[in-house]
Amino acid sequence: MAMFGRRRKKGTEGGDRPSVDGLSAERAVEAADAIVRLTTAELERLTRLTQEAYEQGVRQQVLPSRARAALDSFDRSAGYLDELCRARPDEPELWHMRGALLYSRATTQLALGLPGAAVTDLGACVDAYERSALPNASLLAADALIRRARAHGEAGHPMAALADVDRAIGAYVTAGAYESPHPLLPDFARVLALAAAVQLKVGDTDQALACARQSLARYQDLTRQRGGLGREEAGYMADAAGDTASRLEAVRGNWDAALAVDLVVREAAEAGLGGLGQALAREGLHLRLAGRERQAGPVLARAEALAPGSVAREEELAALPLPPSLAEALAAGEELLRDERDVPLPPGEMTRLRAELTGHESYSASVRVRMGSTFAPKAALLAAVAELLLREGRVAQAWRVALETHLICDSIVRRAGDEAADLLPGLAGPWRDALETASRAAVTAGRDSFVEDVAAASAELRATLGEKLGEKPGAALREA
């Protein structure tokens, strides 16, 4: 049977599109009562039609003007593949085909501004790859997870987005891709670049910068090993890792580091890999902000000549405020604890915990904590600090501490496997409290999508506690 390859994965983000027949997540094409009998000729015909429609969609999705046509082609391919799946529900190759098609369709959905539809398809994609029995199934699933993280981020769901980031990075680390050289180096560089963009949008700026730096270092390794980058690789390097690193280095006043990134991005653009006008605008602005006016002038003039309005766009972007990192939020909590006499939490404990969680480079929640079995009392401290921050009107800081507490608890339980039942009794209370504070912070901030995100995380916690500890659903989380 013909197989789909892992084709282009260039895509941006997007909104909602109703599920269509074919490969929607809710449709159980593998159900026994749906099995139909097809002749060999019919199976070959459906396989050919599935492949042809898929390949047509792949060709179309390269052109922004043909994105809607690409989506129609993928939908048509999905219908044919549905028929194949009903006939051969246990065929591993069909699960691989299903995963590849869902991934490509989600990429187009993101480009069309449909993140809700992309989240649904990518969730089914993860399931399909995991059921494909391929040797690299976990990494194919990780690729879908990092793309779903971007979709969740566009939909305004930070908890879901950052949990996917953690799982995707973890899969590549488990495969040893952190070493260089490594066969997975290009893939891991891309995953880190996308993780940086997600962290910058809805996560922790310190982790965003760490991911971006690591991604850029790996792209530099690739450039040395191969003499250059492909167009798609250069896109991830410049648009995700480079954009994130340049902006955050500049915010910190690390001008040499910011300008070094700008140089890499500009050189790629001069080689035809990216927009040169925008790259020059970013570099010229940073030169000016660094006090190098004489160097900045010609660069900014050239940027404006190539891309009118590019300098103004960069100035607007540079002026956007960034949310507090976990380190900054915990520092704010320490400050409040020094003046708060009604809270039995010594500031020294908070100082030590801040150093433990943020004093080293980390890329996602799993890297923050080395010993999950000892985290329960620390989770209680974090939940109390989040509540204190919210009570004192530090809404953004309260959200950050509560969000990170949830992410760490989730990563600990997920990695614990069968031992999760031993950890949950200690974690459950502070985990609930953190989610309640996160919900109230989201309501206070007027972020409806964040409220939805917390509600979904709370439902997952209820299910986990019910499964592992036998708690009744209503007991798992007090409604905020």
TrEMBL record:
<feature type="region of interest" description="Disordered">
    <location>
        <begin position="1"/>
        <end position="23"/>
    </location>
</feature>
<protein>
    <recommendedName>
        <fullName>Tetratricopeptide repeat protein</fullName>
    </recommendedName>
</protein>
<feature type="compositionally biased region" description="Basic residues">
    <location>
        <begin position="1"/>
        <end position="10"/>
    </location>
</feature>
<dbReference type="InterPro" id="IPR011990">
    <property type="entry name" value="TPR-like_helical_dom_sf"/>
</dbReference>
